[in-house]
Design brief:
The complex is a heterodimer of chains A (195) and B (391).
Chain A (H helix, E strand, L loop, with lengths): L4 E8 L4 H15 L3 E5 L9 E8 L12 E6 L2 H6 L4 E10 L15 H9 L4 E5 L1 H7 L6 H9 L7 H11 L5 H12 L8
Parallel strand pairs in A: 1-4, 4-5, 5-6
Antiparallel strand pairs in A: 1-3, 2-3
Helix pairs in contact in A: 1-6, 5-7, 6-7
Chain B lengths: L1 H11 L9 H4 L1 E3 L19 H4 L3 H23 L5 E3 L6 E6 L2 H10 L5 E6 L6 H10 L2 E5 L5 H13 L4 E3 L14 H11 L25 H12 L30 H12 L8 E3 H17 L5 E6 L28 H7 L4 E5 L4 H13 L4 E6 L8
Parallel strand pairs in B: 3-4, 3-5, 5-6, 7-8, 8-10, 9-10
Antiparallel strand pairs in B: 2-4
Helix pairs in contact in B: 5-8, 6-7, 9-13, 10-11
Classes of the chains: A alpha/beta (195), B alpha/beta (391).
Chain lengths: 195, 391
Amino acid sequence: MKKKCDIVIVGVGGQGILLTSDVIAEACIMTGIPVKGAETHGMAQRGGSVETHLRIGCMHGPTVRAASADLLIAFEPLEGVRYAHFLSREGTAIVNTMAIKPAGRDTVYPELSRLLSIIRGRCARLIADDFSARAVALGSARVLNIFMLGVATRWLPLDKEALAGAIEKVVKPQFVEMNLAALDQGYTYQEGDHG
Amino acid sequence: MAKAAFALSEEFSLPVMLRSVTRLSHGKSDVILGERSARPDRGRFEKNSARFVMVPAHARVQHRRVNELQDELTREMDASPYNLLTMESGAKTGIIAAGLCYEYAAEYADTAPEPCALLKIGTYPLPVDKISRLLAAVENVLVLEEIDPVVEEQLYRWAKEVNPAVRICGKLNGHVPKEGELSVEAVAAAMDVIHGRPARKSRSLPVLPGRPPTLCPGCPHRASFNLLKRVFDPDTVYPGDIGCYTLGLAQGMIDTCVCMGSGISLGAGISQVEPGRTVVPIIGDSTFFHAGIPALLNACYNQANIVLVILDNRTTAMTGHQPHAGTGLTASGAITLDVDLQKLALACGARTAAVLNPLKVQESLEALKKIKEDYGVRVVIFREPCILLKT
């Protein structure tokens, strides 16, 4: 397991980006790995484009360098492209394909296939799926973030138990069980497994 | 650093300012906890007029004292661990980096093609001795600091004394971008230019549709904006303020955002110079309590002609739902008085002050139309809790 990992988590404000970042950071603390992070929050997150950086095992600043992220988790495909320049050529991108159209009558949303090919062209591995549909099938669109964290677990220098422990600590008590189930389901997710 | 700042302040009987930057304030990292020192929860104010009463006679003495302390403070800062000099043998280039920029410089230096000396600047007064030692030892100096070139401009003074031939590279001669956040990439680009290396290629991304932040679905501000649009003519001026409602920019409902409370003052001024124009300053409840009261008082006193709209969502929504003087809770959650906005507005001298529920459309429309026909300083309080308090 690689100890250093630069992660960029992006999406639309309200998709649980900061919570995902908090869970990973908490799991690092519980595991005893140094971690740093930088985030957008407050008003800037409401329905807007949100990016958070997490640097596991890093001794320097909290922001990930261009073309050096080991992992990009995108809860929305357009946002995945917006921050694709952070991806390292050896990196992995995990992208939810459910599009959220930005506000504005005249906004033209790009073709999904084009968005995915841009991301694919910048990294070693792209895992793209309608993870929102899977979250809904699990009982709530709100577990999208933790489901995708489950999918991402195998590329993190953390084990699933540490993430589960962090969820118990960070998530509101009434939602813990639902999120632990989502983490499990994401963890066992197989590409092309559309069942 | 906050702990060190307090210690320094105590030692020198001086105020010490701690300056943060966005990236630090919005960042997180492991923190090494120190020992918590016992702090008495009571103190005693010792009278000392020479120190605390800044009438001119005392101020003249204090000014001399502050000036005389500068040399001692500079020596103290030279010894401070927050100013860290790392000399590298054979280094022809040094990087002087202030604050968070040091992390970018250090990350660059880890894999840099050339050895470089590093000086981290964490304090002001600047550590003159450490700066001079670095300047004397190298041929090039790259200065990294965000916003203004404060350190860079002073370097020329010391370079003249210790190494007039040293080449100072920074914002002043275009090696470092003058605006925006710095990064490891910006450090690498500047070092490439300094060492005559070709620029690194980066693959650009296509132009994408933007995604600006918007008001939340169900936000009561949307309802308030809708009511105002229906009642006031399109030429109405809406001087604004800072809060979630600044996002009303997208709906054409915010015409200014300068600093807290300024919307009311600007609106009062505009109403004086454009007597025929409808002026509707918009401010949130928390911002009003923080900085709007003197501005409202001034508008009333100077007989402005405005409809001041206070969007009372019962919290400080933008920054994460902190309580304020109108919520009945202190910052630590204890029960306290709940200041009545309506009474406060009337006490400031407002001609009328109405509390409306923006979700009750017909009722609010009728009330607003009547308020519009009136004159002078009229206050409308749109009261409806932030939607996030209900979810």
